[in-house]
Amino acid sequence: MERNLMKGNEALAEAAIRAGCKCFFGYPITPQTEISAYLAKRFKQAGGVFLQAESEIAAINMVLGAASTGVRAMTSSSSPGISLKSEGISYIAGSDLPCVIINVQRGGPGLGGIQPSQADYWQATKALGHGDFHLIVFAPNSVQEMVDTVTKAFDLADEYRMPAMILADGLLGQMMEPVTFPEVTAKEIEKPWAANGHGNKREHNIINSLFLQPDVLEKSVKDRFERYAEIKEKHSDAELYMTEDAEVVVTAYGATARVAKAAVNMAREQGIKAGLIRPITLWPFPVKQINEGAKNAHTIICAEMSMGQMVDDIKLAVNCSKPVEFFGRTGGVIPKPSEILDEIKKYAKGGNQ
Amino acid sequence: MTHDILLAGFGGQGILFAGKILAYSGLMDNKEVSWLPSYGPEMRGGTCNCSVCISDNEVASPLVNEPEILIAMNTPSLEKFVNSVKPGGTIVVDSTMVDATVERTDVNTYYIPATQLATDNDLPGGANIILLGKVFKETGIVSAETFKKAIEKVVPAKKAALAANNLKAVQIGMDYNG
User: Fold this and answer.
1) What is the nearest CA distance from A261 to chain B, expressed in angstroms?
2) Intervals of chain A under pLDDT 70
3) Domains in chain A, start-ordered, CATH in brackets?
4) d(CA A48, CA B35)
5) Closest to B61 (Cβ–Cβ): which among A114, A178, A258?
6) Between A30, A177, A259, which is nearest B61 by CB?
7) pTM over 0.90
8) Buried b or exposed e, range A76-97, using 16+ CB within 10 angstroms
């Protein structure tokens, strides 16, 4: 298969077309605007609808509308834009609608900066809007993995009738890497709930997130959490790298995982038993894989481009059975391999101080 | 084996394009490659740089902090990155644009008046590719043949004249002695 160089953002857009996405609604923001630009150019020819909305809020509600009719719909933005979309995302979750949302993160809070960041971890995994709900959150670490994730995100979103997010960052969105587009067989999933034309052959479907009876609302939420339990069981994912004999394990996702892998390789060259656990799904969190990867480690280092938003999840995953230390840069600063190597060395020597 | 390359200069000098050709050259040689631009308000006149990794193995971090090869197309870029180059590494300087010299003795520095050579040879905007030619000659990371394939891949067929200009520019860089 021919390898081509492509920017992460453009590869995400092309992958969405190939995954059978039919509607894209968005609003430009650095560093993800190439997604919109690519689809503006290519989508009509590919049989899709591209629309630049008047705002992020409009865009996410257009996604809600399109998803209601059963077509695959997507939006993308970067951190401040995702905050604007949060109300709509909660409505989409409350209406049991599938869609894909891409967040190419930049530094925050506020307007923040435009350089790469991972400071939206809490937002993506804990509280992207009000109410009891989750999104499936993927954290790819290369342009190729972003491509492969798009199809998976649409498939799982359809299967479980819920929004799925691809949590990227400015580095992954802007970089070019070789990429191939495998033949995609998008899952054909029946959507008998869709509000679309049927020539009066059935009762009309209603898409709604308003339930004024507490017991009815409680049941709708509990039903949703039964689906979440199944997703946790079946779809958590992580990569384990050199963890088998590792005494110090770094946990990192997305772009930071690449920097951490370089640090682990450097540590190994110096005879230090270091390993890497890379969560690929952030929700569901890969609890089993983390315990497997950290089984021989006396220390876990959590490396992020944030102030340590994933640390608590790792502590919970290992039930605080071993220390979880943190190293991070934030505000758009990308950590250097040498900085993570220094952290590994700090804990590798003399065991667990 | 991994080559970490940093290209730096003003926006508009073709830093990102030269990086792209370099990355494509690696691709043509069936290597693993990455290309990472600085992005944001640097366009048109601001400083601009681009990290390129060419490796036999998976590229871990795509951000080049300690380049093995630095191409500097203006004085601020040389000053900013000169001390980050790995000992034993290579620095190629566009001496038309840069009036500073490299004082380090643990790196190989080459000065080539690329912008002047581009003007003299009627190759406007070709300084970036002339510098690449010098890099290829001094480091051997990419062969002339591979570069030609990369150019053909990146420059669309209907703009064949541009491909010819790029090939001419890379040859000027490779032939320059000084």
Assistant:
1) 6
2) 350-353
3) 4-187+209-235 (3.40.50.970), 238-348 (3.40.50.920)
4) 30
5) A258
6) A259
7) yes
8) bbbbbbbbbbbebbbbbbbbbb
